[in-house]
Design brief:
The structure holds two protein chains of two kinds. Chain A is of the alpha/beta class. Chain A contains six helices and nine strands. In chain A, the strands form two sheets. A five-stranded parallel β-sheet of chain A has the order 8-7-6-5-9. In chain A, helix 1 packs parallel to helix 2. Chain B has two helices and four strands; from the N terminus they run E-H-E-E-H-E. Chain B has a four-stranded antiparallel β-sheet with strand order 2-3-1-4, with helices on one face. Chain B is globular, with a radius of gyration of 11 Å. Classes of the chains: A alpha/beta, B alpha+beta. The interface between A and B is small, with 8 and 9 residues.
């Protein structure tokens, strides 16, 4: 039974969230949006989850006919699927000594670089973005991991807030949609 | 700082580790603060790794700065 999600007039990220919820209940979902940005985001979410999306422009909106893929293509079972590490701060742990937090995070990235399995993605948020810019003590460790295939994502909003966008030394500038998708389709998320 | 042979400098505390890092840095000797490898033991959980070739220059620099270290291991 095809479920209809009328997302016209709804602010982002509602169209994506409602569509995803509908896809949990039903194999076929038609989401109606009224702008290209919503179309783009819903399509990317659905295709990232293994669905096929057919877009139909009608006079009263853009109809996105989404069909879930084979069960094997659906969201990863816990433990199976990409390993994602989230770094929400330049420090590891909480306490009054920043120096200790810095020491710990340097040790963390050193150990992470030697560990199995290798993370598929590392996401840097908030003050964590300071770790991917020139002068950060962990840039070399991150570059080595990047060369072995780990995806390194740094939140663009955070880089901008700190005025560090131009000094990024490793990884790519990302956005909340990609960050949320990366977390949600992971098999395991390790967050400091 | 990639090299085939490394020397690990073991220290008594994290603040010693940071001091060693600073002193070696000022002497332009490449080093890295890492967690102590599991097969070694130390009073402190972090140690300073240098290229094996830099062992003698590093020791000289540390002695000149009167820095006490717990030990050295070649790996």
């Amino acid at each position: 039974m095809r479920e209809i999600v009328d997302a016209r007039g709804l602010p982002c990220p509602k169209p994506v969230l409602l569509t995803r919820r509908a896809l949990q209940e039903s194999q076929s979902v038609t989401t109606i949006v009224d702008n290209e940005s919503a179309q783009h985001n819903v399509t990317r979410m659905a295709e990232g989850a293994g669905c096929t999306v057919e877009a139909q422009e009608r006079h009263d909106g853009i109809y996105l006919h989404i069909t879930r893929g084979e069960p094997a293509e659906q969201r990863a079972a816990p433990g199976r699927g990409p390993l994602v590490v989230v770094i929400p701060s330049e420090f590891m742990g909480r306490g009054e000594y920043e120096e200790l937090g810095q020491l710990l995070i340097r040790g963390f990235f050193h150990a992470l670089g030697e560990a199995e399995p290798m993370p598929d993605s590392i996401i840097f948020l908030n003050s964590g973005v300071k770790l991917v810019v020139e002068g950060s003590p962990v840039v070399e460790d991150l570059q080595a991991m990047g060369q072995r295939g780990t995806e390194i994502l740094a939140c663009g909003t955070c880089l901008g807030y700190y005025g560090l966008t131009e000094t990024i030394a490793v990884g790519e500038v990302s956005n909340m949609y990609t960050i949320v998708e990366t977390m949600l389709r992971a098999g395991k998320v390790v967050s400091l | 700082m990639i090299s085939d042979e490394y020397t690990v400098i073991l220290v008594y505390s994290t603040s010693h580790a940071l001091q060693v890092e600073k002193v070696l840095g000022e002497a332009k000797i490449a080093c890295k603060l890492i967690p102590v490898p599991r097969y070694l033991s130390s009073d402190c959980g972090v140690c300073v790794v240098i290229a094996g070739a830099d062992k003698d220059p590093a020791l000289q620099v540390l002695e000149k700065a009167r820095m006490e270290i717990q030990g050295l291991r070649d790996i």
